[in-house]
Amino acid sequence: MNKKLAILFLGATLLVGAAPVGAQGNQPDKSQADFSQKILVEEWKAPASGSTEEKIWSYLNAQGESLNIAGEAQDQLRITKKLVDPKTGTQHYRLQQYIKGIPVYGAEQTVHLDAKGDISSYLGSIVTNNTESLESLPKLSSADAISIANADAEKKIGKLGEPQKTPTATLYYYPLDGVTHLVYFTEVNVLEPKPLRTHYFIDATSGDVVQKYDLLEEVAATGTGVLGDSKTFEATFASGAYTLKDATRGNGIHTFSANNSSSLPGTVVKSTTTNFTDRAAVDAHAYASKVYDYYFNKFGRNSLDGNGFLIKSTVHYGYNYSNAFWNGVQIVYGDGNSTTYYPFSADLDVVGHELTHGLTEFTANLNYYGESGAINESISDIFGNNIQKKNWLLGDDLHRQGKAIRSLQNPTLYNQPDHYSNRYTGSSDNGGVHINSGINNKVFYLLSEGGTHYNVNVNAIGREAAAAIFYHALVYYLTPTSNFSALRAAAIQSAKDLYGANSFQVASVTSAYQAVGVN
């Protein structure tokens, strides 16, 4: 019997295996939080007087009933961020819902003003569960929650090594299955005894694990040497040696070697001359620079966080480790084992994909489960592919025989759906985050190249315009719990911001989502 091997990017790693396209599977064994997306797209004439913030509160109070806001909006919501797009003159505000002074996890909203200062749209979630009887004083401390999460993780992988991020536990309300829980949100992020990054929601009263999900999944693959192409990049000379430290981009791009250990970041890669012979390190360093340059030159973004975030890469992680991952701090590459795959820094698609996960964490911070997780993966696919622009494949430089991991042009070639009606709804793959990313990947291809899909014609707007729309949607519109419908609305609004309400780009975005069945 022939078997097909499908490899899918999982958050910060690679995942082997996928459910069949269109398979419904078992219902998820992980409960999903109760977030109902509200989308309002209409021009609301703001009062002539008053500050922008006052206009936003007036708008939200006027729309309160339709947005499920009971009482005064400013008593429940807080403005957390303001962004102004210098190209369009539009303003974009991000808000957070609070109950009894405690933030509601995932209950974020974005409100948008056009260049005239009028409200143009709203996207987001408001939790409307009965809040009067909610407990607001935790019985556990944040340290207790961290200990509970660590103990649970140790049951899975054994005694934990040093954390890669200093553990914190933040108090939230978390709505799940009709009940709003007072929880601590925390993360377990270690490399030993094996890489693990898990988000935990710990009941602040009982100590129960309300929900958890992994952002990394370790799997086996195989690799061989890098491709042998020549590259030019920035290095630093200090103390008699050249090091892979680029000081010309943001706060720097630094490349390290773990020397086949699991210690991060490892030692910085050095050479006695300006010629570096560590091929995996050369690829990691040069490609990280390309990713930085792409976002800076196209969108004016200074690194992943917009403020010069230091990009760290580590090669030669572990021994025969055939994977790559973003751990919330840096990107890490294994060497493979000389059979099927090259060292994982050898593919610009992979580097761009993983670093874009970092950008997503700093912007919409899309939850890594279900539809929001599939959007997260699709965004990384889109930009990982668009940095190189040589074809519509993901990961084709990784495989020594030229095979690929995914196709944006034809997702079904790699066991992904290309229409919402065929989406996977089982519990595997964090609710289909990699499998269902094919739906929005197809949207990007249709926007870029045009075509007819499921009897819907889409006019091409080109790669650059399509990428600009998705970047704008990610940075200004999407929230952690955005689903495919919210993404559609965000993309349409972004096209209006960038190209005008009556532009052919808006019409093409609308048609593209119709073609994949997202309404």
Overview of the molecule:
The structure is a single chain. This protein has 519 residues and is an alpha+beta fold. It has helices at residues 52-62, 142-157, 279-299, 348-362, 370-388, 428-432, 437-449, 463-477, 484-499, 504-515; strands at 7-10, 13-16, 37-44, 77-84, 91-99, 102-113, 119-125, 169-176, 179-190, 196-203, 209-214, 236-238, 241-243, 245-246, 253-257, 267-268, 270-271, 311-315, 324-326, 331-333, 393-394, 406-407, 451-453, 456-458. It has four domains: 7-31 and 368-515, Orthogonal Bundle (Neutral Protease, domain 2); 37-122, no CATH class; 142-204, no CATH class; 236-361, Elastase, domain 1 (Roll), CATH 3.10.170. The strands form seven sheets. Strands 14, 15, 16, 18, 19 and 20 form a six-stranded mixed β-sheet that branches. A hairpin with a 2-residue loop joins strand 12 and strand 13. Helix 3 (279-299) packs across helix 4 and helix 5 (370-388) crosses helix 8.
